[in-house]
Amino acid sequence: MSLYQVNKLLRDINRSAExxxxxxxxxxxxxxxxxxxxxxxxxIQDWQVRTLYDMGxxxxxxxxxxxxxxxxxxxxxxxxxxxx
Amino acid sequence: xAEIVAGIATSHVPFLAMHPxxxxxxxxxxxxxxxxxxxxxxxxxxxxxxxxxxxSTDHFDRCFYDNLPAFLVGxxxxxxxxxxxxxxxxxxxxxxxxxxxxxxxxxxLDNGVDFALSQELxxxxxxxxxxxxxxxxxxxxxxxxxxxxxxxxxxxxxRCWQVGAFIRKAIERWPEKKxxxxxxxxxxxxxVGPPETGKVNAEFDHWFLQCLVEGKSAEVIEKYKKAxxxxxxxxxxxxxxxxxxxxxxxxxxxxxxxxxxxxxxPQWATGTGVMxxxxx
Lengths: 84, 280
What we know:
By secondary structure, chain A is an all-alpha fold.
């Protein structure tokens, strides 16, 4: 159930430029609307896409959410290959 | 009765229409891909379609795990997109051939293909990018058919081919004297988001294209019965060959397939191909 909420947040950010902006400027206010574990919240706030991927978040959503929040492909590829 | 007059299958990688990402590909490669799309446009213009049925996928822009159809037909009067602003593409609006869309849905429900429908289906880059090359005047109404090739569990390759074949029959039963082209978008091999992002499997792509040219869709279907097996060899983005197989299934024998372009482009993270079915 919880991972569904992670994917849902990523989907919402992908769909809304306004939400993508708010996710960077006031992440806590955005995240409180989703049922996330503390670990998931931290991974999203710190843009730990590899951690989210290892948890089982959908990889396509991870990429589009990253693009929507202003990361480029090169930065994404580095981050998704960075094991914590 | 309506008639199928042409088929096109093409990648829809957004970098084709994004700058400066477009320029990241080697000049020769991007020139050959654009030339292939130009040739596809010429073939379409020669075929003079009144309507385009376009098989595409989604990228969680329209569908999600709260409501996830296998085959979703747009039946409204017009459609606008792409949905995502971060792509930086200008939004376009085009007409939807709702009459044909509704006919396909009702033929399906009467005859064993349970299509979902949407009266307000927005466009994704999966339609906008290819059509910006194929019909840049945006003057041909479309029937969008969104195939779930992005969110597991997905319909099998076999089912996608069968749905293409079913839609051919539906078009041929449609009591309007119209010319219909069928377009499919997506693929070829690419990994979208996992650690392998950027990888391309040109060997798989060449094999797949050759299978379609030789009319051997069944070989692809037989080899990749499980989505997991396809993902290992062609990536999660490679699942989009469903849309190519749907076009192959929809093609009458009189239209002959050929490859117009193929380039493995790691800078676009995609094996980028263009194919057409036309009168020889």
